[in-house]
């Protein structure tokens, strides 16, 4: 037996069809990229149909038959270049139609298809004025031709002529409606693509903003955790080095404070890392976030580091939201850290915590030289100035207000108002 019609061994029907599908796809892509070639093919078909019509001697006179030849060529050009220059081809088609009426060239009748095609093209791709002009020309084409060449056969009456005119006009109108509908769909899809692109850009901007906000939050936490404890350790280390030879007991106490402060810093860092890993599946217990209840321990630590602090609580204590709790603690912590760093020798501070009806008032004052020398705003000798910036960011996140500046009598004053929000609300 021969192998004609038999499948190749080892190939499925789908695999055998792949070369054919690839070839068809290449042809389709070529035709899609060269639409004028497709239109030119149909123009040749139209021109051949017009030649057959002229040869059938449907024209009323030899002169009309001679005029039908250039008119047929013009209609073929309309079809061939309709997508390249739809507005110009519409004007050419209208001019050809007017010439037919004037020269009494009823043929070539197949050329009417060119008018349908150019009306559709202008409605879908042409300028707005050409779309309106195409609709007007399409609605007038059939009535004018019926007036110029009314039917004379025995079956024609006024009613059959009107019905024929109506249906032919509807065909021209439908070509415009289909083209306009296609234009509307294209505009709708373009709007959807533009909206999707805009939403994509907005999502990217929101993602970048979220990343920036997260980085700022981490920076605040690191600053609050590290700056306070490290400043205590630095002060204690400097004091221990100063009195190491003359007062070994004080140096030993300073080293003990450094050790406990370092452990506290490690615990705080563990808590911070635990927050950053909150989305992980790994379990583990972390140190809870500090709040106003831990302010007394914080102030005892500061006093142990050598800074006298007076601490007062006014009003009736009440439950606060975790955000307000942490913000209040961090403000006091940062303010006392600044006093130790910039207040100078002999400086003292006071902390007033007031529970009002709708807000938590914080007032931290000192009598050091940092306010007079502008060290708080400048960030001290390092010039970073992250403390006050972090305060304002934290207070802004909970909807509070901050007022910070030098005192007229010397020192620095920080006043914060935080809205009271009951826990769980």
TrEMBL record:
- Which E.C. number(s) belong to this protein? 2.7.13.3
Catalyzed reactions per annotation? ATP + protein L-histidine = ADP + protein N-phospho-L-histidine
Q: Where are the bilayer-spanning segments?
A: 36-56, 62-81, 133-151, 157-178
The superkingdom listed in its UniProt entry is: Bacteria
PANTHER family according to UniProt: NITRATE/NITRITE SENSOR PROTEIN NARX-RELATED, NITRATE_NITRITE SENSOR PROTEIN NARQ
Q: Which residues form the Histidine kinase/HSP90-like ATPase domain?
A: 324-421
CDD domains listed in its UniProt record: HATPase_UhpB-NarQ-NarX-like
Name of protein: histidine kinase
Q: Which GO terms describe its molecular function?
A: ATP binding; phosphorelay sensor kinase activity; protein dimerization activity
UniProt-listed SUPFAM superfamilies: ATPase domain of HSP90 chaperone/DNA topoisomerase II/histidine kinase
Q: Which UniProt keywords apply?
A: ATP-binding, Coiled coil, Kinase, Membrane, Nucleotide-binding, Phosphoprotein, Transferase, Transmembrane, Transmembrane helix, Two-component regulatory system
Q: Which residues form a coiled coil?
A: 189-216
Q: What is the lineage of its organism?
A: Bacteria, Bacillati, Actinomycetota, Actinomycetes, Kitasatosporales
- Name all DUF7134 domain ranges: 27-186
- What residue stretches are annotated with the Signal transduction histidine kinase subgroup 3 dimerisation and phosphoacceptor domain? 214-279
Give the Gene3D superfamilies listed for this entry.
1.20.5.1930, Histidine kinase-like ATPase, C-terminal domain
Q: GO CC terms for this protein?
A: membrane
């Amino acid at each position: 037996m021969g192998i004609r019609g038999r499948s190749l061994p080892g190939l499925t029907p789908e695999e055998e069809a792949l070369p054919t599908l690839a070839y068809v796809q290449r042809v389709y892509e070529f035709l899609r990229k060269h639409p004028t070639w497709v239109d030119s093919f149909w123009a040749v078909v139209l021109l051949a149909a017009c030649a057959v019509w002229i040869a059938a001697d449907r024209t009323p006179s030899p002169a009309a038959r001679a005029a039908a030849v250039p008119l047929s060529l013009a209609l073929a050009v309309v079809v061939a270049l309709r997508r390249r220059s739809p507005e110009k081809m519409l004007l050419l088609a209208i001019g050809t139609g007017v010439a037919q009426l004037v020269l009494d060239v009823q043929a070539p009748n197949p050329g009417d298809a060119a008018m349908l095609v150019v009306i559709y093209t202008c409605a879908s791709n042409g300028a707005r004025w050409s779309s309106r002009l195409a609709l007007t020309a399409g609605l007038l084409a059939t009535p004018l031709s019926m007036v110029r060449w009314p039917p004379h056969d025995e079956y024609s009456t006024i009613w059959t002529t009107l019905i024929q005119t109506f249906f032919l006009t509807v065909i021209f109108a439908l070509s415009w409606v289909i083209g306009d509908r296609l234009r509307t769909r294209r505009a709708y899809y373009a709007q959807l693509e533009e909206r999707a692109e805009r939403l994509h850009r907005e999502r990217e901007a929101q993602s970048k903003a979220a990343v920036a906000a997260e980085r700022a939050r981490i920076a605040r936490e690191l600053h609050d955790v590290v700056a306070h404890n490290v400043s205590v350790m630095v002060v204690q280390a400097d004091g221990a080095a100063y009195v190491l030879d003359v007062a070994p007991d004080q140096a030993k106490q300073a080293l003990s404070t450094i050790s406990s402060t370092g452990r506290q810093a490690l615990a705080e860092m563990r808590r911070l890392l635990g927050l950053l890993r909150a989305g992980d599946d790994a379990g583990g217990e972390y140190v809870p976030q500090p709040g106003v209840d831990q302010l007394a321990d914080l102030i005892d630590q500061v006093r142990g580091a050598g800074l006298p602090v007076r601490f007062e609580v006014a009003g009736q204590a009440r439950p606060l939201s975790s955000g307000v709790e942490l913000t209040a603690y961090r403000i006091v912590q940062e303010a006392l850290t600044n006093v130790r760093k910039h207040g100078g020798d002999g400086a003292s501070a006071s902390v007033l915590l007031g529970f009002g009806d709708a807000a938590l008032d914080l007032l931290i004052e000192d009598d050091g030289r940092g306010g007079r020398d502008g060290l708080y705003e400048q960030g001290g000798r390092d010039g970073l100035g992250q403390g006050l910036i972090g305060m304002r960011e934290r207070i802004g996140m909970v909807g509070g207000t901050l007022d910070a500046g030098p005192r007229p009598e010397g020192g620095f004053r920080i006043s914060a108002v935080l809205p009271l929000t009951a826990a769980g609300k």
